[in-house]
Structures are given as C-alpha cells and as structure tokens.
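SAMPLE LOG
Freezer: B-3
Tube label: C17
Construct: single chain, 161 aa
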Amino acid sequence: MKKNWIRYAFLFILAINIAVIGQLGYRQLTAGKRIEKSCPKRNAQFNLTQAQQQTLDSLRQCYQEKRNSLWTVQASHQERLIHLIAASTVDTSRVNETVDHINDAHAKLQHLAIDQLIKEKNMLTLEQQKQLIATLKECHNQACINTLGTDQCATTCSKAF
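STRUCTURE (predicted):
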C-alpha cells in the first residue's frame, strides 16, 4: 500500500515538473510574439541616420551571436533537467545543481540584453533616447497590465517610474 502511494506521489510530482518545463518551453518559443503583443511600439522608428543604422545592425549581429550561444547553453541544461527528473531515482542535488546552471544562463542572458540596450541607447541622440525611454515605459506598463492586471499594476508598476 505504501509502495503504491509513493509511486503515485512520484508520478504526480513528475507530471507537475514536466508541465512546468513544457510551459517554460512554450514561453521560450512564443517570447517574440508575446513581446509584440504587449509592446507594439517595440520596433518604433527613431529616424536613424545611415551611420546609426549601420552601427545598430553591427551591434545587433554581435548581440544575436552571443544570445544564441547562451540560449544553446540554457537549452542543454533544461534538457538535462528533464532527463534527471525522468530518471527512476531523482538525484535532488544534481537537479538543484542543474537548476542553478539554468538560472546562471538566464541571468547572463538578462545582463547581455541590458548591456545591448545601453549600447543602443548610447548611440542615439538625446531626442531619440527620450523616445526610446518613453517606448520602454509604455512596453513595461503594457506587460505589467498583461501580467498583473490593471488594478495591481497601477499600484505596483507605477512605483518603478
């Protein structure tokens, strides 16, 4: 009886973990579409000069190469996590270590994105920078509303700006 209970508990936990990992994978695959939905002005025109556009293209190409490399690392750790959880005996220390690796890769991706944003901001004129900041605020507010709802966003997210 106790053995069956342990099996059912393990299967339940495994199902939850697989659902969470599946949801993370779905969110990763649809990230671009969600950003566009929450922030339609994300690719707003800033009236860039030809020199600015060339610099921006160069910066973005370098960023995309680094980002893709980090995504590959993160994906390999996520795949490893799935295999660890799917094993008949789950080694929680290895699971925790793998989760730490996933978190590290995710943090590196966030730092890379912020560094890229700062580089792009620095190449803009003051007027273009103001337009960029206004666009970022609008995107943040829309994402906040989509995530937390209008009421909670008004009290939580308004403090950020």
